[in-house]
UniProtKB/TrEMBL annotation:
InterPro entries: HATPase_C_sf, HATPase_dom, Sig_transdc_His_kin_sub2_dim/P, TPR-like_helical_dom_sf, TPR_rpt
Main EC class the enzyme belongs to: transferase
Transmembrane feature ranges: 498-519
EC number: 2.7.13.3
Extent of the TPR repeats: 170-203, 250-283
PROSITE patterns: TPR, TPR_REGION
Keywords: ATP-binding, Kinase, Membrane, Nucleotide-binding, Phosphoprotein, Signal, TPR repeat, Transferase, Transmembrane, Transmembrane helix
Native source organism of the sequence: Chitinophaga filiformis
Signal peptide annotation: 1-20
Domain annotation Histidine kinase/HSP90-like ATPase: ranges: 656-754
The protein's name in its UniProt record: histidine kinase
Length: 755
């Protein structure tokens, strides 16, 4: 029973503070982007948008693609700014996105480049973030990689300390301590984690249940059950105070089960482990289920239920078909213990070579050697191979003393005594038995009696402290009530004085008011004469306004009629094109007619919106874009595989600009639908229209499709649609850019024309 749920802490303790934005922040950031005036502001907001998509819970491929699109835009702007810090932050964001997309080579290349850029710069906080991200590319299951991971985290800790960033320094210390824990270096882990705990308390962080739990695991592993139980109960209490119902509770109950097991309270151990297993089942977390089940197996073996242990172990093997190295070791060791306990020694023997092979692959003082030696000693004692048992007891003794596993060392002395007694090496047997008794008495009698009693006293003191605090709160409440009463008396006296003063002031006001009344009577007579004159002038103005309103209504009616007739005429032309198409058999001609129809429909939609709108001059581009895409969906087959991500600002354009913008949208979307996603590929087309503070509009149509063919130069080989878009951009007095960046993007920039 030594498995300590190592895998949980890297997942459950909040490895780094989230640098992204919540999903609800995306509209706010888009609005801020339209108001950004400097390149630095735009880069900052674009990176926040990218992180918002990357850090979105349960993010999809489309989310990650959107995040990469925004990060790419930030990087392109920084090519002109040439700011070292923003370049490193863009590469850091690229690394996160690529790692989430399971593209480790690209991600590692980006983060290494960011690290190289920051080495010569005096930006310790940014370098710390980059080093922590770089550490994510190394595994805790491979010793050389684990060493490199620790080196990176320790360097990040130094950078955060240099920057005075205590929160991130605490996170880096916690990650480093957890890595030392995974390596079996408990003293280093305790020293590092205690530093992290002190920093967390200094910064006021409250959700420390995960850190308390990890400290408890290490304390229990080194035989300090009192401290282990203390941290375990602190973890439970902190989780309750923070209303934590997450998977982290599984870790906490699992560790409590381990502590109860080490104290010999197997009933309490089983209850805690079953609580942990229920939480793991509720979250359907396979890794957690396997870890807790393994500890239940050990508890079954200790309570003489090897058949139940073997049944559960076989279920684990069925679930975990491709276990990693450490889990293979656990499974083999428990198989040996189960079959040994059932006296099926031939079956147990089949797993011995595998354990010995794993032992040779690890360093001599690796924590997991103790698990192998424990299973081998158990088997060799049961099969009366006492020389082999004594040999592995000596190896176990060296490892336990080296890494400080007192509880395992105590059990090893008892096994060594049994082997020496069977070999008739009585002096050694007596010596080992004495060492066992001394250590066992120290561990269990002191731990269970003295230390656990002090633990109870400590919690009783906590309870008394709470009662004292409640009494102090009651005294403070009574004190505040007395202060309120005194304040009420002061307010009453003040109110009386105010009333007397008010009465005197009222008399003075009455005297002044009488004189003012006479003056106002005279002024009122003069005002009535002026009002009569103004009234006559108002009547004349009202007649003029009525006449003007009638003229405006007639003008609006005429404009509506014009837009209606233009729309009808365009529909007639489209019908003529449909009729002409029925008599054509040439594919190019038919395609040209279809494209012409789409263009006329784009113009027709604008006149239809003007005819239906109360505003005769402006087009709502959000509604117009959605209706144009809806029309294209109805006229192209297989378009359901394409997702349209619309990011249209609340913009209204004059008809003189709405027509060319609509035609550009039609051309760009038609090209994306026809050419970007061949062979029924799925994809995303992002359509955005943003407005800056200087009335500059940026229209972008970007897809993540296959892009241009090799050696294709759009400036030379562009189609009629490309030329049409360029002409329309000139009509808007703007610029157009057609580029290939993870697909094809069309970006048009133009100023709002004020008619």
């Amino acid at each position: 029973m030594y498995r300590l749920a190592l895998v949980f802490h890297l997942m459950l303790m909040g490895i780094l503070p989230c640098m992204g934005q919540p999903e609800s922040a995306v509209p706010v950031l888009l609005h801020q982007l339209t108001k950004a005036t400097s390149d630095t502001q735009k880069i900052n907001i674009l990176l926040q948008l990218g992180n918002a998509y990357i850090d979105r819970e349960g993010e999809s491929t489309a989310d990650l693609d959107s995040g990469l699109l925004y990060i790419g835009q930030a990087a392109r702007i920084n090519e002109h700014v040439k700011d070292t810090r923003w370049e490193a932050r863009c590469l850091y964001a690229f690394s996160k996105a690529y790692r989430e997309k399971k593209m480790p080579n690209e991600g590692k290349t980006a983060i290494l480049k960011a690290s190289a850029i920051l080495e010569g710069a005096n930006l310790p906080d940014d370098l710390g973030d980059v080093l922590m991200e770089q550490g994510n590319y190394y595994s805790v299951d491979d010793e050389p990689q684990l060493k490199e991971k620790i080196r990176l985290y320790e360097e990040a800790n130094l950078q955060y300390h240099k920057a005075g960033d205590k929160k991130n320094e605490a996170n880096a210390l916690r990650m480093t301590g957890d890595c030392y824990h995974c390596w079996g270096k408990f003293p280093e882990a305790l020293q590092t984690l205690n530093k992290a705990l002190a920093l967390y308390k200094e910064t006021g962080r409250k959700d420390l249940q995960g850190l308390y739990d990890l400290l408890g695991i290490i304390a229990t592993g080194t035989g300090d059950y009192s401290l282990g139980m203390t941290y375990g109960l602190m973890a439970v209490r902190t989780a309750e105070e923070q209303h934590d119902s997450s998977l982290q509770l599984c870790t906490i109950y699992n560790r409590l089960g381990i502590t109860y097991y080490q104290l010999g309270d197997y009933k309490q151990a089983e209850e805690s482990l079953n609580k942990a297993l229920k939480i793991a089942d509720r979250y359907k977390d396979t890794a957690s289920i396997l870890v807790v089940s393994t500890n239940i197996v050990a508890n079954y073996l200790k309570t003489d239920r090897p058949e139940a242990a073997l049944t559960l172990l076989n279920n684990i093997v069925k679930i975990y078909r491709q276990p990693i190295f450490k889990d293979r070791l656990w499974i083999l060791a428990n198989m040996v213990k189960c079959y040994t306990a059932m006296r099926q020694y031939d079956k147990a023997k089949t797993f011995i070579p595998g354990l010995q092979s794993h032992s040779r692959e690890m360093s001599a003082y690796n924590y997991y050697q103790t698990l192998i030696y424990d299973a081998l000693i158990n088997y060799y004692l049961a099969t009366r191979q006492y020389m082999d048992a004594s040999f592995y007891c000596s190896l176990q003794n060296d490892v336990c003393k080296k890494i400080g596993l007192v509880n395992v060392l105590s059990h090893n002395y008892l096994c060594w005594f049994q082997a020496d007694s069977a070999l008739k090496n009585y002096p050694a047997a007596i010596k080992h038995y004495q060492e066992y008794k001394i250590m066992n008495d120290s561990l269990f009698q002191i731990a269970k009696a003295g230390q656990i009693a002090r633990l109870q006293v400590r919690f009783d003191i906590d309870k008394k402290d709470k009662d004292i605090r409640l009494q102090q709160q009651s005294i403070e409440l009574l004190t505040r009530q007395g202060q309120l009463q005194r304040s009420a008396l002061k307010e009453a006296r003040l109110t009386r004085n105010v009333i007397i003063s008010g009465a005197i002031m009222l008399l003075l006001l009455l005297v002044l008011g009488g004189s003012r009344y006479l003056m106002k009577q005279q002024n009122n007579r003069q005002l009535r004469q002026k009002q009569d004159e103004i009234y006559q002038q108002n009547l004349s103005l009202q007649q003029l306004i009525t006449t003007q309103d009638k003229l405006l209504e007639e003008k609006e009616w005429l404009l509506k009629e014009i837009h209606h007739r233009v729309k009808n005429n365009l529909q007639i032309v489209m019908s003529l094109l449909n009729t002409q198409a029925a008599y054509l058999h040439d594919a190019d001609a038919l395609e040209a007619i279809r494209e012409s129809k789409h263009r006329m429909q784009a113009i027709s939609l604008i006149h239809q919106k003007l005819y239906q709108s109360e505003n005769m001059a402006l087009i709502d581009m959000q509604t117009y874009t959605r209706e144009l895409i809806s029309y294209l969906k109805d006229n192209f087959e297989g378009i359901q595989r394409i997702y349209f991500d619309l990011q249209i600002a609340p913009v209204q354009l004059d008809v003189a600009q709405a027509v060319p913008v609509g035609l550009i949208l039609n051309e760009a979307l038609t090209n994306a639908i026809k050419y970007a996603f061949p062979e029924n590929r799925q994809g995303t087309v992002v359509v955005s229209l943003l407005c800056t503070l200087d009335s500059q509009f940026i229209l972008s149509i970007a897809d993540n499709g296959q892009g241009f063919p090799p050696a294709f130069d759009v400036s030379v080989q562009g189609s009629m649609g490309t030329r049409l878009m360029e002409t329309l951009a000139e009509q808007l007095e703007g610029t157009i850019s057609i580029r290939q960046e993870q697909g094809v993007s069309v970006i048009v920039s133009f100023k709002q024309q004020i008619g």
